[in-house]
Amino acid sequence: MKGVGVFTGETTAPSGIPITADEECLKERKWWCFLLSSIFTFLMGIVSVLIQRAIYSIFCRKYTGLQVEDEYSQAELRRQQEEAKKLRLQGQNPDGQADGDFMSEAKDWAGELISGQTGTGRILVCLVFILSISSLVIYFIDASSEGVEQCIPWAENTTQQIDLAFNIFFMVYFFIRFIAASDKFWFMLELYSFVDYFTIPPSFVSIYLNRTWIGLRFLRALRL
Questions:
Q1: pTM of the complete model beyond 0.85
Q2: What is d(CA 186, CA 194) in angstroms, rounded to the nearest whole number?
Q3: How far apart are CA 172 and CA 174, in angstroms?
Q4: Cα-atom radius of gyration of the chain, to the nearest Å?
Q5: Is the dihedral of CA 55, 56, 57, 60 positive or negative?
Q6: Burial of 94 by CB count in 10 Å (0-12 exposed, 13-18 middle, 19+ buried)?
Q7: Scanning 25, 47, 48, 221, which has its CA 20 to 30 A from the CA of 156?
Q8: For strand 149-150 and strand 11-12, is the pairing parallel, antiparallel, or unpaired?
Q9: What DSSP string runs through 82-149?
Q10: What percent of the chain has pLDDT above 90?
């Protein structure tokens, strides 16, 4: 005599083979959402830098007549700017200014951090290296499981939660590097910037979609 069947949360395909909830979820692949998030992040960054440059050139065009054309004067001006930068790094305030140029001070501070010239900078550089290795280990753990794309809720996925914490750190480090960059446009085209484009945004997309995609997370190895 056959017993009463127990409901297992599975549906049945027309062929009679039961379909699990994961298989039902993966009928519609969402890998393109993760990829588009990286592409849009890159394009938005490029467009933002170009808009900033256009605004700067428009509003500063009227001051071009006041610029010194003499090569010696320009060289002297650059020398004075370098000396002022060194004084700010030493904690001194050139020309008796109260606070100085905020953007210049922020750029000097960021450059000091990523160069590892101070104790804090060396700690930051070491953290970047350690977390890059740890993120790569997380990638290998996820890659060893079955499937490139999986329907695992973010709240139940420990490796994705850890990877998100790492990527939040890398995002902060990205903005520090952006502030320190002399040419923002070429910074957006650097190799390490592309590593961030294709590893950080997908971590946030996985929270919204409640699924994971291994994707291009292996690019984090380029930082080692």
A1: no
A2: 12
A3: 5
A4: 25
A5: positive
A6: middle
A7: 221
A8: unpaired
A9: HHHHHHHHTT--GGG-SS--HHHHHHHHHHHHHHT-SHHHHHHHHHHHHHHHHHHHHHHHHHHSS-SE
A10: 29
